[in-house]
Amino acid sequence: MTALQNLTLPNRRYSLGLGIAGAALKYFKYWILAAVALAFLGPLALSLSTEIDLATWFYTGNIAKWFTAFVAGGFLYALVPNMIAAGMTRRELSVAMGVFGLLWSAALGALVFAGLLAEHAYYGAMGWSQGVKGDDAVTVLGSWGDTAAFAAVFPLLYLAYFAAGAVIGAAAYRWQNTGWLLLFPILTIVFSLDNAVYDTEPFGPAWAGVLGRFMDDWGRGLVLAGTAVVAAGLAIAARRILIDIPLRSKKA
């Protein structure tokens, strides 16, 4: 009975979002496992020749942000014609992508949270320093509380990157020749907020963080609030673009 209910019009958008999230995590599971293995085995290999004083999971988590944006944009760009051809409305697809984004961001955020905590124990046992490279110096995550507080914001950041990728993917499909140009202003805003969360230097182009200089005095709470507002705004923008996409007939 539950399966039949999921196929009804009011529910299928949510079940589709859940299905897409599950399929995406399953499809990329070996990539994710490889990243986890590298995050833990990499420092062990490097310790043979150099001192370990930086958190590997910080860099793993940053790379996952860009990967999240790529997944959001790529999936949306590919799903629009297929889902519409299968009878799914654009409004339903926008809801499904919202569910997908929430679940994907929560799953990766939980993984990085757990990874940083496990790394804290791992580094402690090995006598290493779990540090994060900032703009001016290395900040050491000295306690479990420091590590947990540092890791807790990753789900929100992943959601912002997912929403950014969704806007770019929807715009690239909606305006095929020019939509991708939204990459530059969106990247600048999201990356600058990311850079300002901890006053760190996330992996990515330095020019994209140019707005971060105006956020130096905001404080972490205000930056996180700004990140949440931007994520919500980008999600709304992605939905508006998606439901406005014209139906195109297949080319012969």
Query: How large a portion of the residues is in β-strands, by DSSP E?
Result: under 5%
Number of domains: 1
Please estimate the helix content.
Answer: over 70%
Q: H/E series, N to C?
A: HHHHHEEHHHH
What's the end-to-end separation, in Å? 41 Å
**Overall average pLDDT:** 87
Structure summary:
This protein is an all-alpha fold.
List the helices and strands and how they pair.
Blueprint: H1 2-6, H2 9-27, H3 29-46, H4 56-85, H5 90-126, E1 131-133, E2 138-140, H6 144-151, H7 154-174, H8 183-197, H9 220-243
Antiparallel strand pairs: 1-2
Helix pairs in contact: 2-5, 4-5, 4-7, 5-6, 5-7, 5-9, 7-8, 7-9, 8-9
What does this structure look like?
Keywords: Membrane, Transmembrane, Transmembrane helix. The protein is an all-alpha fold. The protein has one domain (about 10-245). It contains nine helices and two strands; from the N terminus they run αααααββαααα. It has helices at about 1-5, 10-25, 30-45, 55-85, 90-125, 145-150, 155-175, 185-195, 220-245, and strands spanning about 130-135, 140. The chain has a two-stranded antiparallel ribbon. Strand 1 and strand 2 (about 140) form a beta hairpin. The radius of gyration is 20 Å and the shape is globular. Mean pLDDT is about 85; it is low at about 1-5.
